[in-house]
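Course assignment 3, question 2. Fill in each field.
Student: A.L.
Task: Predict the tertiary structure for the chain below.
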Amino acid sequence: QVQVVESGGGLVQAGGSLRLSCAASGSSFSIDAMGWYRQSPGKQRELVALISSGSSSDYADFVKGRFTIAMDNADNSAWLHMNSLEPEDTAVYYCFATVRYYSSYSQVRTYWGPGTQVTVSS
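Answer field:
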């Protein structure tokens, strides 16, 4: 079993910055990709950004130019640098890790963190 934990959420004023961290822990696995989704009240969970173990990244249009994702393969960790935050960015941010176990390398599994609240005040 892989555990995923996020940290770094909080309250920030519009125009400010936050950095979210995510760590995946367990044994005998490798990371295919990590990233973040977010969900605000009354809305569906939506992809924010993801990055592959080969450092290929993708962003939702609404964060392009403001958010940057990075990953450390050796540490199974990822970060989401969020700049120019807007009240519309207020949501619970969930980190995910897509992994392969060495014992069953053809199978891909995704694990989720419990989420961290980001609140942007106007």
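Instructor remarks: The chain is about 0% helix and 60% strand. The CA atoms of residues 4 and 24 lie 4 Å apart.
Grade: pending
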